[in-house]
Amino acid sequence: MSISPKCLSGSEIRQTFLDFYAQRGHKILPSASLVPEDPTVLLTIAGMLQFKPIFLGQRAATSPRATTSQKCIRTNDIENVGRTARHHTFFEMLGNFSFGDYFKKQAIAWAWELSTEVFGLPASNLVVSVFREDDEAFAIWRDEIGIPGDRIQRMGEADNFWQSGPTGPCGPCSEIYYDFHPEKGDNIDLEDDSRFIEFYNLVFMQYNKDAEGNLTPLQNQNIDTGMGLERMAQILQKVPNNYETDLIFPIVQSAAEIAGIDYHNSDEKVKVSLKVIGDHIRAVVHMIADEIRASNVGRGYILRRLIRRVVRHGRLIGIQGEFTVRVAESAIALSEAAYPNVRSREAQIKAELAREEAQFLKTLERGEKLLEEIVDRTKQQANQQISGQDAFTLYDTYGFPLELTQEIAEEQGITVDLDGFEVAMKEQQTRAKEAHQTIDLTVQGSLDKLAETIQKTEFVGYAELSSLAEVEVILVDGQPVESAEAGTEVQIVLNQTPFYAESGGQTGDKGYLKSGENGDGLLVRVDDVKKESDFFVHFGFVERGTLKLSDKITAKIDNSSRRRIQANHTATHLLQSALRQIVDSSISQAGSLVSSERLRFDFNSPRAVTAEELQKIEDLINSWIAEAHAAEVAEMPIAQAREKGATAMFGEKYGDVVRVIDFPGVSMELCGGTHVNNTAEIGLFKIVSEAGVAAGTRRIEAVSGQAVLDYLNVRDKVVRDLGDRFKAKPEELPNRITNLQNELKDTQKQLAAVKSELAIAKSDQLLAKAESIGEFKIIVAQLGDVDTEALKTAAERLQQKLGNAAVVLASIPEPDKVSLVAAFSPEVNNKGLQAGKFIGGIAQLCGGKGGGRPNLAQAGGRDVNKLPEALESARNLLIEGLG
Question: Using an 8 Å Cβ cutoff, are 103 and 54 in contact?
């Protein structure tokens, strides 16, 4: 019995879907958390993610069939949210899954039954897509379901080959689209999202993809489907976009009421902001409900970014005060029936939103003051244009929307350098890829306020591993507090500290802050230290007791960790000196990382360092270590240091007086880091790798001291394991592996021969399909995934068998590679057709090139989607040229 589309709410659609599959033997399972078990993805992005171990055969399924309504988050196209009809960060994916039970035929039949008979969608409004090589799915849709062939679209990997991440289960898929305007006829373009919306995706999970992109068959053929709840709601509720469905629009309305505006009477710009608020509030409510907290890294950064976008768009539509908690109430009310944890975590959701919003509003206020100064300064300039860097500083540091900067600038009769802004944005994105966790902006804001009442931190860690100190600032979640109890994450500023703060590539110290004579008093674990302005911020966790302002405590660093860091830092200095001696005296540092586990040194060099040079570098550094060179540390005017030949560290800013680390005759550098007193303390140095990281920039990674032993132990274990497997002594392993490689090459040659024979067998079947063009025979065909050499052999053989003929063959040996071969007889050449020129022109249609002799030539391309068009063009050109 068909259900009228207009009577289904979002909740009814969800329940109807689950009930449909439950009646067909599927076990209804709850939504997984937005924090996935899968380490390859940051957030849950698809319904199948919780079943990935089952698809991979790593875990047994509790039921052969399952169905879920899964909450998902994707932020890869966040800029499209609110601007298109159906882009979201948060969405619900309705899914039915088979774990080696049913496959394509049953999945397709049920999807069609659900769509047409249960949800009542007219068959005339539905269009289907399949993977271009999936003839089986095409046949099921056409012959068993009864969809006309012209309403089944074949599409490539980008559209119809699904994978959950860079690695893992994947397979071809078939999608069902709803056609809002079937009256426009059979001119079907599924990219036209004003006419078509994809609402149901059936993934035929057959393969596992590894890190190299190789596909291997899974143990079972599985089904993974996804129906977008918001998209189906748009269709059934007959609204122009997902945001106006009952799943989201109440949230949009609550924001509009707070702003004192009417959504339907607003212009498009205001509607976009309201949609962004509606979408993002749903996302953050569920993220906080799943115990994600705002921070500057990972999932926490995504949460913070979404909250700040909500606040910014609230300002754009005229909301001045705090409002996110009020809007969140609508989202909680809409979701609690399906996801009860949003109500049970209501207090935490509201507290996190209120805290983040309040802090960000203060940051925005500082940005507005800066913008006033920038506007005044710009008016005095000739070009009357706010620089891209200034606009980016407002955006990046203060979270100031570019749109608002443009609006204010326009009111003042000036413009904004948008191109310069984009350049600054790209530079920041590049830096972000290399950066690790940085200081929280909320911490920075609190320190800015406290700067006038506290003194800068005195660093005593060059000479002391512990010191008495007074607690000057305690921050919890970026807010200054009087005290912090056990179990609290804190940021602490002391009047003095032995802890080195992250700088110059050296990581911050770890250790403890404690009080009490018997060790039973206060204990704060310090995990990292960062420097902000003149303050050392200790990031820690109160393990025991209560930390209070003005407490007198003992600050003690982890001596073992410090020793390892010092050894690696001094080794970095020795490495730079050795590179200059052995490779090139002009080598300069381009970056570094010094931690307790390893060291990394980036340097400018036009070429790779050879293996022989690397060995010489390693030997030289170990000789310096054995010679026990004592360190001489001194402070002196920077001019004097440069006169003595001291090397400056990359990226460091130096004052008039600098600290010089000198190992006489070996290395002398300007450096504020911690170092060994004697090179002998390093113990041993070992290079782990050398590679290029950018044009003209190389990177060496190495270990020293105890880490060398750890490194060698791992490799010794590998050698012993290989010796046991091959029943060979360590010195015999190279020859044994070489023999195996030779055997593999022989096997590959045999395989190539078999492939060639298979290609010939396939090509022989084409003889009967040769077309006659006057006195000539032509064959234009595709031979699956045959490799280039086998394709060439097949083309030559066909031409020879046909005699007076032209043969053009193609294949797709790899997912993004097209191979083309043309074999022409002398008579064809006499008609003015040259194989080399001919195939080169055809290859261009596939984004490639090629050529060869007049009678035999080959070419390649990258655009496999253009291959049918290219082959059709080849056939037409041959008919025209030989006719």
Answer: no
